[in-house]
């Protein structure tokens, strides 16, 4: 029987809460990824920045691009857990 551990990625690409959205966009494009776990200074997952969430705010971010910080646009840890649970149900 396969477990999550058999399929999960362990070499995570992450960003910090205060990284710019420009950095997030570049990382998503460069690594061809849609979701980036956001970690705090202790290395704990505090949220998830999704491509969908990023694109939803894209028009508002154009005028502020590079000055906005992920911590203002990230999901909460509870959202991160709901997102992960949603993938487990599929």
UniProtKB/TrEMBL annotation:
<feature type="domain" description="CBS">
    <location>
        <begin position="8"/>
        <end position="64"/>
    </location>
</feature>
<keyword id="KW-0129">CBS domain</keyword>
<dbReference type="InterPro" id="IPR046342">
    <property type="entry name" value="CBS_dom_sf"/>
</dbReference>
<dbReference type="InterPro" id="IPR000644">
    <property type="entry name" value="CBS_dom"/>
</dbReference>
<protein>
    <submittedName>
        <fullName>CBS domain-containing protein</fullName>
    </submittedName>
</protein>
<dbReference type="InterPro" id="IPR051257">
    <property type="entry name" value="Diverse_CBS-Domain"/>
</dbReference>
<dbReference type="Pfam" id="PF00571">
    <property type="entry name" value="CBS"/>
</dbReference>
